[in-house]
């Protein structure tokens, strides 16, 4: 069965055919832009460039890295050559998925049946750590997986801004940048990055600790309704924040979040459930009060499955303990009651937990 449908009624017609009429999903093909098949958002839409490699995601061991040589000082040509290799692989992988062939992505929790464009459409850029000026942070979260990198001096000649410029010229479909890894507010040339995003009308997804308030960054985020700033607050009190972040800046962060909000920025908060730190009802209620006070649009929930403690990787059990899942369920119920959107970090959740988390959605 071949269908040509407008975007606005694609899902409704598809649901009617498969659920009411009993048509097998695998029998339906599309003449339009999208097709129903196995796929992944990152494989279709995302590019991540660091001083070590380029890739489409960090879902180990399923992702494919295109590595630079150890210690290589990168030129613009080096970056473009590696992007060429990755894009050849991306197109080949998508073609295999279209043909029902097995790929390196099989087994990954992010691979699922859904509507995907026939060709890749790279819209989102992530720039990794350790370009010119290094990767720095004014926080010291004990679970951070960037601690080693943050302490490493960079010999690179290309800056984070240079990678943004190169990417903008390579991908004419880009419309979003993710500013993360280290603390973006103290990046060299952060003002130039803001100028670039506003010139090209890109949205910004800023992962920040909000210890600093940057007027230029606030202007750039507020200028695009799709932009937002995400802060891993992980607490609702100064005492707990200080234990997790190991800096005493909770009051300043809350004050700055109010400033960003007044400027018109969309604010997302994150809560990583950490045993013996913030996995208690009292702390969660205080955090939810902050969400209400700031009128946040979105909350991301997670557990510390990066496995890092003081920069050292530890084996972590992907299945959420039952006591933690009960708290997770409580937070979801309250957030839905408050009208706040929520999600969870799929790479930090086991396949067993994904199903029962999805059942919590209204």
Automatic annotation (TrEMBL):
<keyword id="KW-0949">S-adenosyl-L-methionine</keyword>
<keyword id="KW-0411">Iron-sulfur</keyword>
<dbReference type="InterPro" id="IPR007197">
    <property type="entry name" value="rSAM"/>
</dbReference>
<dbReference type="GO" id="GO:0051536">
    <property type="term" value="F:iron-sulfur cluster binding"/>
</dbReference>
<feature type="domain" description="Radical SAM core">
    <location>
        <begin position="117"/>
        <end position="341"/>
    </location>
</feature>
<dbReference type="Pfam" id="PF04055">
    <property type="entry name" value="Radical_SAM"/>
</dbReference>
<keyword id="KW-0479">Metal-binding</keyword>
<dbReference type="InterPro" id="IPR058240">
    <property type="entry name" value="rSAM_sf"/>
</dbReference>
<dbReference type="InterPro" id="IPR013785">
    <property type="entry name" value="Aldolase_TIM"/>
</dbReference>
<keyword id="KW-0408">Iron</keyword>
<dbReference type="InterPro" id="IPR006638">
    <property type="entry name" value="Elp3/MiaA/NifB-like_rSAM"/>
</dbReference>
<protein>
    <submittedName>
        <fullName>Radical SAM protein</fullName>
    </submittedName>
</protein>
<dbReference type="GO" id="GO:0003824">
    <property type="term" value="F:catalytic activity"/>
</dbReference>
<dbReference type="GO" id="GO:0046872">
    <property type="term" value="F:metal ion binding"/>
</dbReference>
<dbReference type="InterPro" id="IPR050377">
    <property type="entry name" value="Radical_SAM_PqqE_MftC-like"/>
</dbReference>
